[in-house]
Write a structure and sequence with these properties.
Helix 6 (125-134) packs parallel to helix 7 (147-158) and helix 12 (296-314) runs antiparallel to helix 13 (324-339). The protein has two domains: 2-183, Creatine Amidinohydrolase, Chain A, domain 1; 187-456, Alpha-Beta Complex (Creatine Amidinohydrolase), CATH 3.90.230.10. With 457 residues, the chain is α+β, with helices and mostly antiparallel strands. The protein is built from 16 helices and 19 strands. It binds glycine and manganese (II) ion (MN) (2 copies).
Amino acid sequence: MFAEALKRLPPAPEPIRVEEFSERQGRLTQQFRTSDILIVVAPHEAVRSNDVHYRFRTSSDLMYLTGWTDPEATFVLRHDGNDWRSALFVQPKDTLKEIWEGRREGTEGALEHYAVDEAYPTDERNDRLSEWLSDAKRVFHRSSVDAALDALVLESIERRDRKRQHFGTGPVTMQDPSPLLAELRLRKSASEVEHMLFSGKVASIAHELAMRHSHEGVRENQLQSVIEGFFSYAGGEGWSYPSIVGSGENATILHYTVNNDECNIEDVVLIDAGSEYRGYASDITRSWPIGGTFSVPQRELYEIVLAAQEAAIAVCRVGEQYTAPHDAARRVLAEGLINLGVIDQTIEEALDVETGELRKWYMHNTSHWIGLDVHDVGVYKPNGQPRLLEAGMCLTVEPGLYFGAWRPDVDCPERYANIGIRIEDDVLVTDSGPVVLTQDCPKTIDDIEAIVGQDWK
Ligand code: GLY
Ligand code: MN
Ligand code: MN
């Protein structure tokens, strides 16, 4: 099943070039003073239980600046009086460790294949950094990732030594570099877009495979395994967030991840699952009837959510506020529910964020940035004003309607009991309008009905 599907994927994008990583570093140092130093450290590997670790995933900032993905890495940018120098501390080559744990690039590989001027083994980090810090005046460092590094940076700020006395050096302030990095990461380069598009294509096919595999009695975890199996089969790292596979009333729980119920023939299943490919996330939600045909109430809700999503995608345009898709989606959802008689308010009343009835059935936002993180970095309201969309920004568009009959806080209309519908795509803003990165994933009622169950006949 996977081999055939794989043929529909285009060739994987070229890896991001070393020069691009250098350019990213340059865009950052342009904002620095020559007396600044930047440190970006990988998180520690986390213990799952006893001597087993969770699969390691490095920090997106480190990936963004270097492309380095192995653990125990620290990246440093400093000015040596003539020029900016980049350095990477990495696990050194070590045959015994490599026999057990896997091959390492080591310092040699770091210098040869990555955008760094210098590479050192990790055990030299603290001594070298301590020296470099003593020449700096301001240190860009995000605390609480690596306690030993925090202590080193603090010590460098508190140190009262000859250098500080004679030359006035030694950092006096520490600043979190995350906001600067977030501004860079918010606008995707052409090669980043290629990766986002590929990740989106992988996830689109994975969702389609799950549609094809749907049948009465299939379990949520079985659909999950089809989707996640294809993420890996296609060569990616797996999921970019834990998959949500909810059928029946589980589809009305926004972040349901238990995923182990049997699907009933009359249920809609809602699957929110995205792949990660070379660090880049996709994030797709589709909702379909397990039996392959939407019931009339399911269809009524689906059509409203789809219209809301299309209206929201249409305003993902340069110069629009990032809130425009949310506003567009809410309006269409509210109109739809008024027309169905679910909401007995005027449109403006229904949309009121305090007293409007729409929020009973649609209680989350419509969009978030997406990139190296599924909920990617970037301030939504810089200076309190909604950010205006620019070419290169990527955001999701994910309206939904959730009629949880189990909820004590609402009177769920019987007709729509336990139907949950969300439709989510990833959208790139371009100068010529929105580009849906996940457009290969079946979405119309006709397309879905033609596909569901096809691999189970
Ligand atoms: N899967 C989480 C989200 O769609 O934001
Ligand atoms: Mn999602
Ligand atoms: Mn999302």
